[in-house]
UniProtKB/TrEMBL annotation:
InterPro entries: DUF1761
Keyword field: Membrane, Transmembrane, Transmembrane helix
Signal peptide extent: none
Transmembrane segment boundaries: 6-31, 52-74, 80-105, 112-134
Record's protein name: DUF1761 domain-containing protein
Amino acid sequence: METMGINYAAVAVASLMNLVLGGLWYSPLLFAKVWERSAGMTEGQLKRFNPAKVLTLTLVLSWVICLNLAFFLAAPGTDWQWGMTAGFLAGFGWAAMIFIVISLFEQRSLAYMLVHAGYITVYFTLAGLIIGAWQ
């Protein structure tokens, strides 16, 4: 059996990208107000945010996501283009679609679904790009 070539540095950078992109995506510069309204977040809830807990768990979960994606992209010949395409397909076609299905049953608004599904799609696309380019 051939050993798969996983670049753990690329996995780490792609995992950190989740924090960077999330910080921008959910900031006042982009979608903070839409997210707060559509999620029904109050000022009180936002003030109780525990950054150490949330960011640490986010980083661990991002590592799992990116390591999984890296296994799919470990084939010889993978480059940034295939990495980005595979990331998009996984993000949009799998992750965002199941998120929308769950949101439909929760009777969430279209704005809620679009903000989060957009983030999921962009994140997976960037993660695939990083992992594919750094193969």
